[in-house]
Amino acid sequence: MMKMTVEETEQLHEEPETSAAPQQLDGADVLIQTLKKHQVEVVFGYPGGAVLPIYDALHKNPIRHILARHEQGAIHAAEGYARVSGKVGVVIATSGPGATNVVTGIADAMMDSIPLVVFTGQVATTVIGTDAFQEADIIGITQPITKHNYQVKDVADLPRIINEAFHIASTGRPGPVVVDIPKNMATGIFIPTDETSYEVNLPGYQPTTTPNFLQIQKAALAISTAKQPLILAGAGILFSKASDQLVQLAEKYQIPVTNTLLGLGTIEGNHPLFIGMAGMHGTYTANMAIQTCDLLINVGARFDDRLTGNLAHFAPNAKVIHIDIDPAEIGKNVPTEIPIVADAKEALQALLDQNAPNGNTAAWLESLQINQREYPLFYEASEEKGLLPQQVVELIHEYTNGDAVVTTDVGQHQMWAAQYYKFNHPHNWVTSGGLGTMGFGFPAAIGAQLAKPEAKVVSIVGDAGFQMTLQELSLLQEMRIPVKIVILNNQALGMVRQWQETFHGERYSHSLIPVQPDFVKLAAAYDLKGYKIETFEDAKVQLKEALASDEPVLIDCRVVQKEKVYPMVVPGTALHEMIGVKPE
Amino acid sequence: MKRIITVSVVNQSGVLNRVTGLLMKRQFNIESITVGHTEQPQISKMTFVVNVEDEQKLEQLLKQLQKQVDVLKVNDITEKSIVVRELALVKVVAPPTVRAEINSIVEPFRAATIDTGKNVVTFQVTGNPEKIDAFIDLLKPYGIKDLTRTGVTAFVRETQKVHTPQLSIL
Predict the structure, then answer these.
(1) By the 8 A CB rule, do A25 and A190 touch?
(2) Do A122 and A147 fall within a single domain?
(3) CATH superfamily entry for domain B2-76
(4) How many CB pairs below 8 A link A and B?
(5) Is residue A471 part of a domain?
C-alpha cells in the first residue's frame, strides 16, 4: 500500500509552476493528485453540479477521462477495463441522478468482485439532509452493494480515504468502493496538520492470503488418493493471476478442469483436460463429472445457484476442497470438508510444493472422454432454417483465432458465447455473471479496448440488451475505439422467450420486439460502418471482413428467433437431470 | 435457536446501519440490539440477540459480520459462561389501595421505584430477560400503562467452565 513520506506531503503544497500568485490546494486537487499517485491511467465519468470542482481540478491536472454518454455506460466501461487490465476501475459521477445511475454497475461489480473506486459528488455538508437540489443518500443506497463506502466529512481525511478505498477495492476479494464527496469538501482548502494521516488504517480489514499448512497437507493427500478428482475453476484464479498454477496442478495430477461462467479462460479452451463450462447451460460432461467425482476442488468459485442446480443433489459423492480468499463463501452453499482460506495463487503453489504422489486418474479421464464424444455441444443447422447464433459465435472464434477479448450482456447470446468461444488466454472474457445486467457488454467492451488497445475486442450482444446502452456508440465515433459489436439479433428477449416457450405455455408476454431500429443506419448516424448479415454464407464473408477491420464496426446478425440454448439444467432439478443433451 | 452475539466495531457514523442492513439483507431477524462505547472511545460494542435456523446459518452470520471493514471482532457467546442483563422501566397502575400489595410483589425482584404519582408507580428492574418477563407478567393484572426495555447486553465471565468449540475456520 502506498504511503506518503513527509517530502511527498510537502510536494502537495508546491505551487504549480504556471501560477503567478501563491495557490493553495483544495480537496479536488488533492483527489486528482492522489489518483495520479495510484497510477490511475484513465477515469470514466460524467460531470455535473456537485463534481464541478473535481472536473475543474481535472482540467488543471489532466488524467485521461472518458466521457461516457450515460453514467451507467461509464461504470460498465470501468468494469470492463478492470476485468481485462486487473487494475482498479475509476468512475466519477455527480450527486443525485448521476450517483443513482451508477447503482446498477456498483451492484454488478459487487456480485462479480470487480475492483472499482466510484467517486460520487454530493451536496455540501451544510445542506445534506435538507432534500437539496440533486441530493440522494448514496451512502445509504449503496451500503448493501459495496464492499465499503465513505462520505468525506473533513478535507484533511481525503488522501487517507482515497488510499483506503483503493486498498479495499483491490485486495482480498475485490469489489466496489464508493467515496461520496460533498461539494464543500472538494472546494475546501486542504490544510494538513500533524494529525493528518495518509496511511491506510483499517484494523478490521486483514484479508488472509496465506493458506493454512495443515489444510494444504490434507488437500494434497486427498488429491493423491482420489480416483475421480475434478477441479472447478472460478474467477478467483483470474484475480490472483493463478492460471499457470492451475494448469500445472491439473497437468501434474491429471485432474480434469471445469469452469464457472466467470472462470472461462483460466485454462485454455482446447486444453485436453478441460471439459467445458459447468452449470445451467454447461456441458453434459462437466455436469456429470461434478455429479460423479469423488473429490471436488473448488478454486475461487462461489457455488452460485446457476452452477449447482438443486443443492440437495449437488456432487453427492464428492469430498469438497474449497479454496477462497473470502471465508464467508466457504460452507455458504455446499458443505466443505477441507476449507482453505487463501489467495488462489498461494494456495495452488503450496499444493504444487507438496509434491504428493500421483493418483491414477486414467480410467476417470477416459470415462469423461467417452461422455465428451457421446454428448458434445450441438446445434442443427440447415440452409432453410437460416443463420444460427451458434454459427456466428463459432465464426467469430475462427476469425479471431480464440485470441479476442469477448464481452457480453446476459441471456442466450451470453450462453452461446460461453459455450462456443474457446479462449486461449485468461482475462479475455468480460461478462455480467452474478447480477446478469443487460446493457453491460457494449460499454464494457469500450473499457476493455482501452485496457488492451492492441487486442481485438468483440462485443457479442443481444438486440434487446444493446438497446439499453447504445448511446455509447458516440464514444466509438468520437475516439474511433475499434470495438466490434456483433448483435445476435433474434428480435426478442431471447432467454425470456425461451423460458416462456418452455415453462409458460408459449405465452410470449412482452418478450418479442419485432419493431427495431435499422442498426446499419444507426451505425451510420454515428459515423460507423454497419453490416447486416442474414445467411451463413454472408456471415462467412462479411463477418471476416468486419472483424479484420481496424475501425469500430457494428454487425447486425439476423439469427433464427426460435433457437434455444441447450443443454439445460431446469431450475429445481439436479445437474445430472439436464435436458437437451442430444439431438432428438 | 436464539444466539447472543457481540460485535466490536470502529466507532464511525453509519456502522450501525451497515451491520443491521447486513442482517436484513441476509434475512436474519434481530430480537434486540444494544450499542455503546467501550473503554476505548474509538471502539463501540454491539450486543445482538438473533434468531437463527441452524449452525450453517449461524456460521454465515458470523462470517458476514466479520467481513465488514468496520467490524473488529465477532463473538457468539451464547454457550459461554456469561452475564446477561437487561433493564426495563415499567409504569403500572397502583392506586393507594393496592400499592402495598404491588410493592410486596416487586420486592423480590429488587426493582427500584423511580417515579411515583397519585395512581401510578414507575419501577426500574434489571436482570436477565426471563426475570424481566416474569416481573412484567406479575404486574400485568394491575394494568401496565407504559413499558420500555433496553434489550440485552452481555459479558463473558472471567472464568469459563468449558471451552466451546470455535465455529470459525480461521
Answers:
(1) yes
(2) yes
(3) ACT domain (3.30.70.260)
(4) 48
(5) yes
B169/A330 touch (CB, cutoff 8 Å), yes or no = yes
**Is the backbone of residue A476 left (phi > 0), alpha (psi -120 to 50) or beta?**
alpha
Judge whether A333 lies within some domain: yes
Q: Tell me what pLDDT residue A10 has.
A: 46
* Residue A458, C-alpha cell as written in the block: 468483440
Count of C-beta atoms within a 10 Å radius of residue B32? 16
Asked, for residue A576, whether it belongs to a domain, the answer is: no
Contact A43, A65 (CB under 8 A): yes
Q: How many whole angstroms separate alpha carbon B139 and alpha carbon B102? A: 8
Q: What angle do CA A416, A256, A581 make, to 5 degrees?
A: 40
Do A476 and A338 have their domain in common?
no
CB A125 within 8 A of CB A153: yes
Instruction: Give me the DSSP letters along B21-50.
Output: HHHHHTTPEEEEEEEEE-SSTTEEEEEEEE
B157 touches chain A (CB under 8 A): no
A213: left (phi over 0), alpha (psi -120 to 50) or beta: alpha
**Residue A339 touches partner B, C-beta closer than 8 Å:** yes
Cα–Cα distances (Å) from A493 to A489, A496, A500, in that order, read 10, 5, 10
| Amino acid making up residue A464 | A
Residues facing residue A509 across a β-bridge: none
CA distance B41 to chain A (A): 15
- Report, as residue numbers or ranges, the catalytic residues of A: 71, 133-134, 183, 495
Residue tagged 484494523 (cell numbers): A203
How high is the mean pLDDT in each 10-residue block of chain A (584 residues)? 47 49 84 97 98 97 98 98 98 98 98 98 97 97 97 96 98 98 97 88 95 97 97 97 98 97 97 98 98 98 97 97 97 96 98 93 97 97 94 98 98 98 97 98 98 98 98 98 98 97 97 96 98 97 97 98 97 96 90
In CATH, what is the architecture of B82-154? 2-Layer Sandwich (3.30)
* Contact: B69, A332; criterion CB under 8 Å: no
Q: Which domain holds residue A218?
A: 213-374
For chain A, the first-to-last Cα distance in angstroms comes to 58
- Which residues in chain A have Cβ-Cβ distances shorter than 8 Å to B63? 327-328
Q: In A, residues 20-79, which contact B (CB 8 Å cutoff)?
A: none
Distance CA A109, CA A78 (A): 10
d(CA A448, CA B56): 39
Q: ipTM more than 0.85?
A: yes
3-state secondary structure of A323: strand
